[in-house]
Automatic annotation (TrEMBL):
This is PPM-type phosphatase domain-containing protein. Residues 12-235 form the PPM-type phosphatase domain. It comes from Rossellomorea vietnamensis. Gene3D superfamilies: PPM-type phosphatase domain (3.60.40.10). It comes from the Bacteria.
Amino acid sequence: MKLHHITIKGDGPLNEDALIFNEGQSLFGVADGVSSLVPFTSKEYLTGGYIASQTVKDALESMKSGDPSLYEALTRINERLHMKMTEYQIDGNQKEQLWGTALAAVRVQDNGLEFIQTGDCMILAVYESGDVRPLTRLQVEHLEETATEMWRECIRRGFRTKDEIMPHVKEQLIANRQLSNAEGGYGVLNGEKEAVNYFEYGKINKVGLSHLILLSDGLFLPAESIPEGESYWEYTACSILEKGIKKYAADLIDLEESDPECITYPRFKKSDDKAGIVMDFGGET
């Protein structure tokens, strides 16, 4: 198995995305830190999203043989995040104060492949036949689409800068955060005891599997850039495998730089943090 990976800082002061490599356990993942809506930095000038994604990274990279399933591991990590926020005097009853992380992780086993996801990180399985199989779904998609449509409406009304548009969308983004790990909302690893109810997890066999692609949302293509009639995830997977993950990311950044005010391709920031891993099962170990 060959691994190809990349992580790139977006507009923020820190790269809150993290790559997870535990080659001894054939365990790999991407984590996308989510900072609180209430401003927070530690005395080391670290954001909550950075602390959360690094906490997950450290825990999964330290797993050893005989350790529990990924579901059990994430349950323990979620408890650890809760304790960390308690240490920082974060009020766990105030969702706007919570920080956490989205996550997609896989563990390759002799007889299959275990996976787990929460939030909006994605896992795409690509087969020798060319078929692309999303193992996960974007848990925040239905909420973000509402905010994105509000962004588009502002553009239709003639707004032409992010600073003009954001005040019209911000309340919706805040309202979305109140639905973390809640019915009608989305899952995220943020210390709430309900977080475990929103894990997507399971196991697939490896028959015919050629590649596995793990992505944080910073590597998602804008919907408007997908050719008409093309399947979004098939187009994304094929683009990554044809170009390679580094060229794919570079082209995406060029697209983002061409639209700094997020008008042609509506989104909430010019460039988000990026993390991606391509696992090539056709290559040599």
